[in-house]
Amino acid sequence: MIRFLRQPIELKRALGTIWAFPFPAELRREMCKEYVHLFTLGWVDKSRKTARLAGKEVSYCTVETLKYLFYEIFMRQSYYFKAHREDPVILDCGSNIGMSVLYFKSLYPKARITAFEPQPTAFHCLQETIQRNQLADVTAHAKALANETGEIAFYTKDESPGSLLASRMKERTSERCQMVSATKLSEYITGPVDFMKLDIEGGEQDVLIDLVESGKIQFIEQMAIEYHHHIIPEQDTLTSFLSLLESSGFGYQIEGKLQRPFRRGHFQDVCIYAYRKGEARTA
Q: Among 15, 152, 215, 262, which residue has the fewest nearby CB atoms (within 10 Å)?
């Protein structure tokens, strides 16, 4: 009953948030309708596994993941950044079904995006979303990001296709192991990068080390990183991760949620927004 009474309040708050988006008014009106269709009425095309969001047709793996990604990326605007040109270069590392790609394209229609997603089911949805909406200047790679190239072990959840917990680390989810292709992110950076989103469920430290050792981190201006703290409860490596950013000339802001009651070694998602300080990036 309480949940029922709260729904109008939650709906009003959500629609107000959408209207505050830095998007054209026509798109904001469309998104208000789509929010009601998805979250209030539950409208999705179950036969084709698609939904209408951000004025586009989105392929999804599960409705639960679809709702979560839309809320986190569009409602909370976890990856908002201010670009200095109309066609920013974006690295989308851990694209899943492509909700972040749609967000970046809604924010900057001329954005040039390189996306990475190793999970086969999620990558299929990502490709379909790109093709169905004829998204220009978006290149998707079915690869995991690591500090090595070749085939690596990748762990997923059997009952949750496109799971957001899929990882190179078996401690994250170890129900099923499959081999996927891996690559170094540094090999895809040949010039200035306006924004990098990094959410790869525990592999972020290896990627940052690769970028530092290759010198390619100097091409990146801004980053949004999801740092997965205590996937292995005994490991504390956040200081070394932040040191890599600091030594590379980045400042940062941090957001983390602490579960209560407090428990030692408890897993935490830590969001790090990093920005280059001082002089402009390397051209």
A: 262
User: Of 233, 234, 251, whose CA–CA distance to 242 is shortest?
Assistant: 251
One-letter amino acid for residue 212 of the chain = V
- Residues 61-97: tens digit of each pLDDT: 999 999 999 988 988 889 999 999 999 999 999 999 9
pLDDT at 2 over 50: no
Taking the CA atoms of residue 87, residue 93, residue 94 and residue 97 in that order, the dihedral angle to the nearest 10 degrees is 20
Given a cut of 80, is residue 53 above it in pLDDT?
A: yes
Q: What is the dihedral of CA 200, 206, 207, 209, to 10 degrees?
A: 150
Residue 261: is the preceding peptide bond cis (ω within 30°)? Answer: yes
Which H/E stretch holds residue 242?
Answer: helix 238-247
Q: Point out the least confidently predicted range of 93-102, 120-129, 202-211, 226-235.
A: 226-235
The tokens for 232 are: 């292995």
The CB-side HSE value for 256 (13 A sphere, CA atoms) comes to 16
pTM above the 0.85 mark? yes
Burial 116-146, CB ≥16 within 10 A → b, else e: bbbbebbbbbbbbbbeebebeebebbbbbbb
Going by C-alpha positions, the residue among 195, 221, 224 that lies closest to residue 278 is: 221
CA dist., res. 32 & res. 259, Å (int) = 32
Full set of structural domains in the chain with CATH: 78-276 (3.40.50.150)
One-letter amino acid for residue 16 of the chain: G
* More reliable by pLDDT, 34 or 169: 34
